[in-house]
């Protein structure tokens, strides 16, 4: 037992969760019926926590492709692409992705997590520098640790802070590689990519963008935030995953950089793991085809995202600064997040709980992800369950009223400390709905930052 | 600008005090995560304040080595060359 003594605090937390009957980190689906419905403990549940952005998991053509590939090529590859050989499908998928992005090179990895491990650890060597957005996904942090580069972080979505940190490194030898994400998976906010590109140019750094949550979501053709921001030429490496909008599993990196293919024999997370099975490769290839040829899916997804994000905001929940398929309601503390999550599940709605340190600023989040496959009535039903639960728990006003301090921004906040970070953030967010979205975001975060460098103080949190 | 070792020490103490949401007594020997209840991200966040105040970068592997408040003071002094 001594070996696990170090996990005693974590075990305590886990056990206290189990004793409440449901544990958000240990959910098991009896069956999944469609991209938007499943069965848990014998009950039909509306799914709002899946990352299944385009709803392609049950697309008949995607399934047919997977079945046909399994019949003709078998269930698995039983080895790594380097040691045991690639199949034609791996190469074809790489060509299709390179073509989709208009880039010369593509490498496919067995998961999105490994794509970050494989790319970041191989790009930056011992004397190089990785500069990460502070809110980066765990796979970006882990990929940084797997390599031998010096790693520093800059404040989330803050180009001035990035500039400052590159300035400090200016006299230090070695290449500088900046890593940001398209849509951030916790609050659904996007990176100010144009500003980052300016900073990158100024210091001669390289730029990696992880489009895990923005592939198939943003951009005219669905290539992600770099396309939406019109800066694809300045993004040296795009990393992404097949596990969200493409409904499968796997990861990739595309680039135009000469010599890119050397990474196939330098990147350990590419070399020393088994390649994707034929079924997955075929399904993802078909899903990419659907992504490219059905732009209506993206439209439907964003309509749902806006409806849900605005709906929660109007009810009085504190939500992220912009509408995206990731919609998180900020909870006062982890206990309330669990209570909220459990009540929603009991009412037939599945969401996610996200806790620090996986979340920014020590926030406890009730996280939802919407899909193009959700009907309008499903979104509205979810909103009504959020409304009921929020009122039961006293998190939102009894009636959906616009609080006076929104209408009169200079008035003191009723029922909350005026210096309360969230209240300030929330107010600036509402006010800034009228202003540019990037401004709203800056305000939202600077409100947090001013309040406390370590931890945001939350309504009711003493 | 050169900061004396003592200036750096008091700067780290001030930043840590500001990062905690309640007043807590601590000394050079206090363990930052176990003694003060800051998680890994909260530690990295407050280290940013120190980096800015001293205009230095403390790489993540150096932060990972830090266990006590004194370790952090030493790392900052080392990187600032203020010893
Ligand atoms: C930003 C980001 N990068 C990478 C990953 C890893 O992708 P995967 O789960 O497909 O391995 C995720 C999601 O889990 C993510 O949110």
Question: What does this entry look like structurally?
Answer:
With 462 residues, chain A is α/β, with parallel strands linked by helices. In chain A, 42% of the residues lie in helices and 14% in strands. Chain A has helices at 8-18, 60-73, 81-84, 88-101, 112-123, 138-146, 159-169, 193-203, 225-229, 268-271, 278-293, 295-315, 334-346, 376-392, 404-407, 421-432, 437-451, and strands at residues 31-34, 37-40, 43-47, 105-109, 129-133, 150-154, 176-181, 206-210, 237-241, 251-255, 326-331, 349-350, 352-354, 364-369. The two termini of chain A are 36 Å apart. Residues 403-462 of chain A have low confidence and may be disordered. In chain B, helix 1 packs across helix 3. The two termini of chain B are 14 Å apart. Chain B has one domain (5-80): Non-ribosomal Peptide Synthetase Peptidyl Carrier Protein, Chain A. Chain B has 5 helices and no strands. The model of chain B has no long low-confidence stretch (mean pLDDT 87). Chains A and B meet through strand 6 and helix 7 of A and helix 1 and helix 3 of B. Bound molecules: pyridoxal-5'-phosphate (PLP). Pyridoxal-5'-phosphate binds at residues 111-113, 116, 137, 139, 181, 185, 210, 212-213, 241, 243, 251 of chain A.
Structural class estimated from helices and strands of chain B:
mainly alpha
Largest sheet of chain A: 7 strands, mixed
Bin the helical content of chain B.
Answer: 55-70%
User: Any guess at the CATH architecture of the largest domain in chain A?
Assistant: 3-Layer(aba) Sandwich
Main beta-sheet strand count, sense and barrel state of chain B? none
Tell me the structural class of chain A.
Answer: alpha/beta
Order of helices and strands of chain B: HHHHH
What proportion of the residues of chain A is helical, as a percent range?
40-55%
Number of strands of chain A: 14
* Spatial extent as radius of gyration of chain B: 12 Å
Provide the domain count of chain B. Answer: 1
* Percentage beta strand of chain B: under 5%
- Rg value of chain A: 22 Å
What's the number of structural domains of chain A?
A: 2
What is the residue-mean pLDDT of chain A, rounded to a whole number? Answer: 88
Question: What proportion strand of chain A?
Answer: 5-15%
Fourth CATH level, the homologous superfamily of chain B: ACP-like
- Uncertain spans of chain A: 403-462
């Amino acid at each position: 037992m001594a070996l696990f003594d170090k996990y005693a605090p974590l075990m305590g937390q886990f056990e206290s969760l189990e004793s409440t009957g449901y544990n958000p980190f240990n959910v098991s689906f009896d069956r999944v019926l469609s991209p938007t419905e499943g069965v848990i403990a014998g009950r039909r549940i509306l799914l709002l926590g899946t990352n299944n952005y385009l709803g392609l998991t049950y697309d008949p053509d995607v399934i047919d492709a997977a079945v046909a590939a399994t019949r003709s090529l078998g269930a698995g590859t039983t080895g790594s692409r380097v040691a045991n050989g690639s199949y034609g499908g791996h190469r074809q998928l790489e060509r299709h992705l390179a073509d989709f992005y208009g880039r010369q090179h593509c490498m496919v990895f067995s998961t999105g997590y490994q794509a970050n491990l494989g790319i970041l650890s191989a790009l930056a060597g011992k004397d190089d520098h990785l500069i990460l957005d502070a809110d980066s996904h765990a796979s970006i942090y882990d990929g940084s640790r797997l390599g031998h580069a010096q790693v520093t972080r800059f404040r989330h979505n803050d180009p001035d802070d990035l500039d400052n940190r590159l300035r400090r490194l200016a006299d230090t030898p070695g290449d500088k590689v900046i890593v940001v994400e398209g849509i951030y998976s916790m609050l659904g906010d996007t990176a100010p990519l144009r500003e980052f590109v300016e900073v990158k140019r100024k210091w001669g750094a390289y730029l990696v963008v992880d489009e895990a949550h923005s592939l198939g979501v943003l951009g005219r053709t669905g290539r992600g935030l770099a396309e939406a921001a019109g800066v694809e030429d300045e993004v040296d490496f795009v990393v992404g995953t097949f596990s969200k909008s493409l409904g499968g599993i796997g990861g990739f990196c595309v680039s135009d950089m000469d010599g890119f293919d050397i990474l196939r024999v330098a990147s350990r997370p590419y070399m020393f793991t088994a390649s994707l099975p034929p079924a997955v490769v075929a399904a993802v290839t078909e899903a990419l085809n659907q992504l490219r040829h059905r732009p209506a899916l993206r439209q439907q997804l964003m309509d749902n995202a806006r409806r849900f994000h605005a709906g929660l905001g109007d009810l009085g929940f504190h939500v992220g600064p912009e509408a995206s398929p990731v919609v998180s309601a900020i909870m006062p503390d982890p206990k309330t997040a669990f209570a909220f999550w459990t009540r929603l599940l009991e009412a037939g709605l599945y969401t996610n709980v996200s806790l620090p340190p996986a979340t920014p600023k020590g926030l406890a989040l009730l996280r939802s992800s919407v899909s193009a496959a959700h009907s309008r009535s499903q979104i509205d039903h979810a909103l009504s369950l959020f409304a009921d639960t929020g009122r039961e728990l006293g998190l939102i006003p009894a009636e959906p009223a616009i609080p006076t301090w929104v209408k009169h921004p200079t008035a003191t906040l009723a029922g909350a400390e005026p210096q309360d970070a969230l209240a300030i953030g929330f107010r600036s967010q509402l006010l800034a709905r009228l202003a540019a979205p990037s401004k709203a975001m800056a305000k939202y975060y600077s409100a947090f930052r001013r309040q406390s460098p370590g931890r945001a103080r939350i309504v009711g949190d003493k | 600008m050169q900061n004396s070792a003592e200036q750096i020490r008091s700067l780290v103490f001030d930043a840590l005090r500001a990062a905690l949401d309640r007043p807590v007594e601590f000394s050079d020997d206090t363990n930052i995560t176990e003694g003060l209840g800051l998680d890994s991200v909260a530690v990295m966040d407050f280290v940013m304040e120190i980096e800015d105040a001293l205009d230095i970068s403390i790489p993540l592997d150096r932060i990972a080595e830090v266990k006590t408040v004194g370790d952090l003071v030493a790392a900052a002094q080392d990187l600032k060359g203020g010893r």
